[in-house]
Amino acid sequence: MPDFFDQLWEQLHNPRSQIQRHRYLEQLKTLIPLSPSPRLLAHDARSVLQTGHILHACPTELPRVDGPAPDLFLFDLSDGLADPSWFRQAKNAVPMLPFWRLDVIVDELKVIETRAMGADAYCLDMGGLDVASAQYLAEVGRDYDIPAVLVCSREEDLARAFQIKDVQHYWLRDILVAPQLLELAWLSGKHVIFDVHSQDQTAAFAGDWPAKICLVHRETGTVIERLPREDI
């Protein structure tokens, strides 16, 4: 699909007119049936910890990493390195494992674009979206079988996120990187992702929690995921 990805890259960097956007959207919808099927995070009761990585190059096979084999990979299309075509290429090279789009999504076109790329999840920034907009964008993803990940950096972001129906993934950053939040009944059984910047922060999340936790180490790009209590 080189022609499509050339257009996609151009759209990412040079937004088009409304008519061009509409034509591009219709083209994306025709490409979705040709895109790889969405992959979910595995529920592996055999291991307490699961791992994953933010990648800055497209793998040609399962990347070699220290520690357990990864269960999740992420590409950030805003980092100046990642290419939209990587999702399909990576999923062809690495069976079974999911690949998430890490940069935030702001409109319907970007959600559908993400599905056409072959990504398995996308991020919505609750700091820049009201409840109605976030609910709509989450529902668009659900229509195309990929989950929205609600990114929250402030308490008010999280309060809005809790108003979004039928969402299972929350990404908590900055002041919200606090294990006590996992005691909230709302997060029980949900996927909760935290940005952490030190081993001390990592150690604070040790123990059993009713949520499924992902700790993202920004310096190394490592994700450490702890299974929910009922899966252990």
Oligomer: single chain
Q: Count of helices? A: 7
Helix amount: 25-40%
What can be said about the biggest beta sheet?
Answer: 10 strands, mixed
Tell the overall outline. globular
How many β-strand stretches? 10
Distance between the termini: 42 Å
List the secondary-structure elements in sequence, H or E. HHEEHEEHEHEHEEHEE
Share of β-strand residues: 15-25%
Mean pLDDT: 83
In terms of structural class, how would the helical and strand content be classed? alpha/beta
Contiguous runs where pLDDT drops below 50 for at least 5 residues: 45-49
In which order are the strands of the major sheet placed?
Answer: 3-2-1-10-9-8-7-6-5-4
Estimated radius of gyration: 17 Å
Give an account of the 3D structure:
This protein is of the alpha/beta class. It is built from 7 helices and 10 strands. The protein has helices spanning 2-13, 18-31, 86-93, 108-117, 131-143, 155-161, 199-204, and strands at 49-54, 70-75, 99-101, 104-105, 122-125, 148-152, 169-172, 191-196, 212-217, 222-226. It has a 10-stranded mixed beta sheet with strand order 3-2-1-10-9-8-7-6-5-4. Strand 9 (212-217) and strand 10 (222-226) form a beta hairpin. Helix 2 packs parallel to helix 4 and helix 4 packs parallel to helix 5. The longest helix is centred in the N-terminal third of the chain and has 14 residues, at 18-31. It is globular and about 50 Å long.
